[in-house]
Known about the structure:
This protein has helices spanning about 15, 35-40, 40-45, 50-65, 70-80, 95-100, 165-170, 190-195, 225-235; strands at about 5-10, 30, 35, 85-90, 110, 115-120, 130, 150-155, 175-180, 200-205, 220. It has about 240 residues and is of the alpha/beta class. A 6-stranded parallel β-sheet has the order 5-4-1-9-10-11, sandwiched between helices. A 3-stranded antiparallel β-sheet has the order 7-6-8.
Amino acid sequence: MDETRNIVILTGAGISAESGIDTFRGGGGLWEQHRVEDVATPEAFARDPNLVLRFYDMRREAIQTKRPNPAHDALARLDANWKGGLLIVTQNVDDLHERAGAPYGIEPRVLHMHGEHLNAWCTFCDARSRWSGPLADRPECPRCGARALRPDVVWFGEMPYRMDEIHAALRMADLFVSIGTSGAVYPAAGFVQTARDLGVETLELNLERSQGSHWFHETRLGPAGELVPAWVDEVLAG
Length: 238
Protein backbone atom coordinates (compact mmCIF):
# COMPACT_ATOMS: atom_id res chain seq x y z
CA MET A 1 0.00 0.00 0.00
CA ASP A 2 1.22 3.49 -0.86
CA GLU A 3 2.59 4.89 2.43
CA THR A 4 1.50 8.42 1.54
CA ARG A 5 -2.14 7.39 1.85
CA ASN A 6 -4.30 8.60 4.73
CA ILE A 7 -5.91 5.94 6.94
CA VAL A 8 -8.71 6.44 9.45
CA ILE A 9 -9.31 3.51 11.82
CA LEU A 10 -12.38 3.15 14.04
CA THR A 11 -12.04 0.75 16.96
CA GLY A 12 -14.87 -0.54 19.11
CA ALA A 13 -15.49 -2.83 22.04
CA GLY A 14 -14.44 -5.91 20.09
CA ILE A 15 -10.78 -4.92 20.14
CA SER A 16 -10.71 -4.53 23.92
CA ALA A 17 -12.90 -7.55 24.66
CA GLU A 18 -9.87 -9.75 23.98
CA SER A 19 -8.14 -7.97 26.87
CA GLY A 20 -10.99 -8.94 29.19
CA ILE A 21 -13.01 -5.72 29.08
CA ASP A 22 -16.75 -6.34 29.01
CA THR A 23 -18.92 -4.83 26.29
CA PHE A 24 -22.32 -3.15 26.43
CA ARG A 25 -23.71 -5.64 23.93
CA GLY A 26 -23.25 -8.83 25.93
CA GLY A 27 -25.17 -10.40 28.78
CA GLY A 28 -28.69 -9.89 27.48
CA GLY A 29 -28.57 -6.11 27.62
CA LEU A 30 -26.77 -6.00 30.97
CA TRP A 31 -23.32 -4.57 31.62
CA GLU A 32 -21.75 -6.13 34.70
CA GLN A 33 -25.29 -6.86 35.97
CA HIS A 34 -26.46 -3.27 35.45
CA ARG A 35 -28.86 -1.99 32.82
CA VAL A 36 -27.24 0.63 30.62
CA GLU A 37 -30.11 2.99 31.47
CA ASP A 38 -29.20 2.79 35.16
CA VAL A 39 -25.50 3.68 34.87
CA ALA A 40 -24.72 5.31 31.52
CA THR A 41 -27.16 8.17 30.96
CA PRO A 42 -27.38 11.73 32.31
CA GLU A 43 -30.77 10.81 33.76
CA ALA A 44 -29.24 7.94 35.72
CA PHE A 45 -26.60 10.27 37.17
CA ALA A 46 -29.24 12.80 38.19
CA ARG A 47 -31.39 10.07 39.73
CA ASP A 48 -28.72 8.12 41.61
CA PRO A 49 -25.27 9.69 41.39
CA ASN A 50 -23.87 7.38 44.08
CA LEU A 51 -24.71 4.28 42.05
CA VAL A 52 -23.22 5.74 38.87
CA LEU A 53 -20.02 6.92 40.57
CA ARG A 54 -19.51 3.58 42.33
CA PHE A 55 -20.08 1.73 39.08
CA TYR A 56 -17.51 3.82 37.21
CA ASP A 57 -15.07 3.59 40.09
CA MET A 58 -15.18 -0.19 39.71
CA ARG A 59 -14.73 0.08 35.94
CA ARG A 60 -11.82 2.50 36.32
CA GLU A 61 -10.09 0.22 38.81
CA ALA A 62 -10.67 -2.89 36.69
CA ILE A 63 -9.42 -1.34 33.45
CA GLN A 64 -6.10 -0.49 35.08
CA THR A 65 -5.51 -4.25 35.61
CA LYS A 66 -5.98 -5.07 31.90
CA ARG A 67 -3.27 -5.24 29.28
CA PRO A 68 -3.13 -4.44 25.56
CA ASN A 69 -3.56 -7.42 23.30
CA PRO A 70 -1.94 -8.20 19.91
CA ALA A 71 -4.49 -6.02 18.07
CA HIS A 72 -3.55 -2.94 20.11
CA ASP A 73 0.13 -3.77 19.69
CA ALA A 74 -0.28 -4.10 15.92
CA LEU A 75 -1.95 -0.70 15.59
CA ALA A 76 0.82 0.90 17.66
CA ARG A 77 3.32 -0.73 15.29
CA LEU A 78 1.42 0.68 12.31
CA ASP A 79 1.47 4.10 13.92
CA ALA A 80 5.22 3.91 14.49
CA ASN A 81 5.99 2.89 10.92
CA TRP A 82 3.34 4.52 8.73
CA LYS A 83 4.57 7.55 6.79
CA GLY A 84 1.16 8.71 5.62
CA GLY A 85 -1.70 10.18 7.61
CA LEU A 86 -3.15 8.01 10.36
CA LEU A 87 -5.91 8.61 12.89
CA ILE A 88 -7.26 5.98 15.28
CA VAL A 89 -10.73 6.95 16.44
CA THR A 90 -11.82 4.76 19.34
CA GLN A 91 -15.22 4.32 20.89
CA ASN A 92 -13.50 2.69 23.85
CA VAL A 93 -12.90 4.57 27.09
CA ASP A 94 -9.92 2.45 28.15
CA ASP A 95 -6.28 3.48 27.58
CA LEU A 96 -5.08 0.26 25.94
CA HIS A 97 -4.16 1.95 22.64
CA GLU A 98 -1.91 4.34 24.52
CA ARG A 99 -0.39 1.66 26.71
CA ALA A 100 0.42 -0.35 23.59
CA GLY A 101 2.51 2.59 22.42
CA ALA A 102 0.21 4.82 20.38
CA PRO A 103 1.18 8.48 20.96
CA TYR A 104 -0.74 10.50 23.52
CA GLY A 105 -0.43 14.28 23.73
CA ILE A 106 -1.57 17.59 22.32
CA GLU A 107 -2.01 16.14 18.83
CA PRO A 108 -2.50 12.41 19.46
CA ARG A 109 -2.98 9.84 16.73
CA VAL A 110 -5.64 8.27 19.01
CA LEU A 111 -8.88 10.17 19.51
CA HIS A 112 -11.36 9.05 22.19
CA MET A 113 -14.75 10.07 20.86
CA HIS A 114 -16.57 8.68 23.92
CA GLY A 115 -14.19 10.05 26.55
CA GLU A 116 -11.80 8.23 28.87
CA HIS A 117 -12.17 6.31 32.13
CA LEU A 118 -8.90 7.80 33.35
CA ASN A 119 -10.22 11.34 33.11
CA ALA A 120 -12.51 13.22 35.48
CA TRP A 121 -14.65 16.14 34.34
CA CYS A 122 -15.53 18.98 36.69
CA THR A 123 -19.08 20.09 35.93
CA PHE A 124 -18.43 23.33 37.85
CA CYS A 125 -15.38 24.73 36.03
CA ASP A 126 -15.42 22.41 32.96
CA ALA A 127 -11.82 21.23 33.53
CA ARG A 128 -10.66 17.73 32.61
CA SER A 129 -8.04 16.04 34.80
CA ARG A 130 -6.24 12.71 34.54
CA TRP A 131 -7.77 10.53 37.23
CA SER A 132 -7.06 6.98 38.37
CA GLY A 133 -8.73 6.88 41.79
CA PRO A 134 -12.34 6.82 43.00
CA LEU A 135 -14.92 9.57 42.51
CA ALA A 136 -17.67 8.25 44.78
CA ASP A 137 -16.18 10.01 47.82
CA ARG A 138 -16.60 13.36 46.01
CA PRO A 139 -12.95 14.52 45.81
CA GLU A 140 -12.10 18.13 45.01
CA CYS A 141 -11.45 19.25 41.45
CA PRO A 142 -7.68 19.81 41.08
CA ARG A 143 -8.38 23.00 39.16
CA CYS A 144 -11.07 24.83 41.14
CA GLY A 145 -11.62 22.82 44.33
CA ALA A 146 -15.31 22.16 43.70
CA ARG A 147 -16.65 18.71 44.57
CA ALA A 148 -18.32 18.36 41.20
CA LEU A 149 -16.34 15.66 39.41
CA ARG A 150 -17.98 13.03 37.20
CA PRO A 151 -16.53 10.41 34.85
CA ASP A 152 -15.34 12.03 31.62
CA VAL A 153 -17.22 9.56 29.47
CA VAL A 154 -19.94 10.23 26.93
CA TRP A 155 -23.18 8.72 28.15
CA PHE A 156 -26.08 7.71 25.95
CA GLY A 157 -27.90 10.87 24.95
CA GLU A 158 -24.74 13.04 25.05
CA MET A 159 -22.74 14.33 22.08
CA PRO A 160 -19.50 12.47 21.32
CA TYR A 161 -16.27 14.44 21.43
CA ARG A 162 -14.31 15.97 18.54
CA MET A 163 -16.74 15.14 15.76
CA ASP A 164 -15.46 17.99 13.58
CA GLU A 165 -11.95 16.52 13.65
CA ILE A 166 -13.26 13.05 12.81
CA HIS A 167 -15.24 14.25 9.81
CA ALA A 168 -12.27 16.33 8.62
CA ALA A 169 -10.09 13.20 8.77
CA LEU A 170 -12.69 11.18 6.86
CA ARG A 171 -12.74 13.82 4.12
CA MET A 172 -8.97 13.41 3.71
CA ALA A 173 -8.93 9.61 4.02
CA ASP A 174 -8.00 7.10 1.35
CA LEU A 175 -8.90 4.11 3.53
CA PHE A 176 -11.39 3.69 6.39
CA VAL A 177 -11.03 0.59 8.58
CA SER A 178 -13.52 -0.48 11.26
CA ILE A 179 -12.28 -2.92 13.91
CA GLY A 180 -14.48 -4.68 16.47
CA THR A 181 -17.57 -2.51 16.17
CA SER A 182 -21.23 -3.52 16.32
CA GLY A 183 -22.39 -0.91 13.81
CA ALA A 184 -25.26 -0.14 16.18
CA VAL A 185 -24.11 2.99 18.04
CA TYR A 186 -24.38 6.29 16.20
CA PRO A 187 -22.78 8.52 15.12
CA ALA A 188 -19.81 6.13 14.84
CA ALA A 189 -21.96 3.58 12.99
CA GLY A 190 -22.46 6.15 10.23
CA PHE A 191 -18.76 6.74 9.53
CA VAL A 192 -18.57 3.95 6.96
CA GLN A 193 -21.48 5.40 4.96
CA THR A 194 -19.84 8.83 5.09
CA ALA A 195 -16.59 7.29 3.86
CA ARG A 196 -18.33 5.45 1.02
CA ASP A 197 -20.13 8.64 -0.05
CA LEU A 198 -16.73 10.36 -0.19
CA GLY A 199 -15.27 7.60 -2.38
CA VAL A 200 -13.04 6.19 0.38
CA GLU A 201 -12.03 2.53 0.35
CA THR A 202 -13.58 0.70 3.34
CA LEU A 203 -12.57 -2.43 5.26
CA GLU A 204 -14.24 -4.19 8.18
CA LEU A 205 -12.28 -6.42 10.60
CA ASN A 206 -14.71 -8.02 13.02
CA LEU A 207 -15.61 -11.18 14.89
CA GLU A 208 -18.93 -11.20 13.04
CA ARG A 209 -20.60 -8.96 10.50
CA SER A 210 -21.74 -5.63 11.95
CA GLN A 211 -25.12 -4.05 11.36
CA GLY A 212 -23.49 -1.82 8.73
CA SER A 213 -21.45 -4.58 7.12
CA HIS A 214 -23.11 -4.09 3.73
CA TRP A 215 -21.46 -0.66 3.42
CA PHE A 216 -17.92 -2.06 3.44
CA HIS A 217 -16.01 -2.94 0.29
CA GLU A 218 -14.46 -5.87 2.15
CA THR A 219 -15.17 -7.70 5.42
CA ARG A 220 -12.75 -10.06 7.16
CA LEU A 221 -14.10 -12.12 10.04
CA GLY A 222 -12.19 -13.46 13.02
CA PRO A 223 -10.65 -12.41 16.34
CA ALA A 224 -9.12 -8.94 16.35
CA GLY A 225 -5.95 -10.36 17.88
CA GLU A 226 -5.42 -12.38 14.70
CA LEU A 227 -6.94 -10.19 11.98
CA VAL A 228 -5.37 -6.86 12.94
CA PRO A 229 -1.72 -8.02 13.11
CA ALA A 230 -2.14 -9.82 9.78
CA TRP A 231 -3.66 -6.72 8.17
CA VAL A 232 -0.92 -4.45 9.57
CA ASP A 233 1.74 -6.82 8.22
CA GLU A 234 0.03 -6.63 4.83
CA VAL A 235 -0.14 -2.82 4.89
CA LEU A 236 3.47 -2.30 5.98
CA ALA A 237 4.69 -4.83 3.40
CA GLY A 238 3.18 -2.63 0.72
